[in-house]
Please model this.
Amino acid sequence: MNNLIEAKNTIEFLKEHGISAKKRYGQNFLIDRRILDRIIAGSEITKDDTVLEIGPGIGTMTQALCEAAGRVIAVEIDKDMIPILEENLSDYDNYSIINEDVLKLDLNKVMSEEKKRIKVAANLPYYITTPIIMQLLESGLSIESITVMVQKEVADRMQAKPGGKDYGALTLAVQYRSEAEVISNVPPNCFIPRPGVDSAVIRLRCYAEPPVKAKDEKKLFAVIKAAFAQRRKTLANALKNAPQLNLSREKVEQTLTQMGLTADIRGEKLSLSEFAELTDRLFD
Ligand code: SAM
Model:
């Protein structure tokens, strides 16, 4: 087994095996021991934990996770990575690999045996960072924390305040489920190949109970997503045009007025608790 936790071994391994990163799968392999250590420490994983890793690639982070965790479940879309991963994990017996597209996977089913809340750790593929985070936050999966490498711009969106251009559905979903904290900024030279953007490791510590109460969580997520689906529209137009919500113009306008909001307000002005109140009133 090649010890990929040491970055120089990862660099050599990629060269020796002639592994060229597949752009279509967002492959940027981590080659920085310091950052890997920060992810593992930041994710607060212990031998009591089961960890879900999304996109293990050649297994650099997976090796470190197998050392730290009780069990690792790694989901990788690229079938060419599977034999490489198996070879690089041959010293461990506390992992399973699922060769699937994570977005098509029923994570509740995959994790159905788990009794404790799971932890998620990953160097995410950047072309689908937001859908993966939304999938994790909407799945109802029992998650204790999510510690992930993302584009810096996505980390900014997760922590945005109402009113700005970064504030949107991702911000609200993250804030409804968790407390977010950036644990490291990561420059492009920590990867092979180098991505065209700066990155950050962000940890979401998930709440046992959300900070605001919504009568129907699914409806809250649906309203939030509809509000930001077409950013240039007013909130009223975005909500009444969303077929999945099935709301009349009168109901939307009347509800905004009841809440003391103007007819031309945009979604980005509303806080999480206002979205919860809006949803409760719209579907009362
Ligand atoms: N974990 C490795 C590391 O840190 O060096 C690789 C990280 S690389 C940024 C992202 C990984 O996600 C790649 O291995 C890629 O093949 C995998 N991936 C891309 N799309 C995926 C999907 N839809 N489902 C599961 N894995 C995916």
Observations:
- The chain is about 40% helix and 20% strand.
- The chain has a mean pLDDT of 95.
- Strands lie at 29-30, 50-54, 71-75, 95-98, 118-123, 143-151, 178-186, 191-192, 199-206.
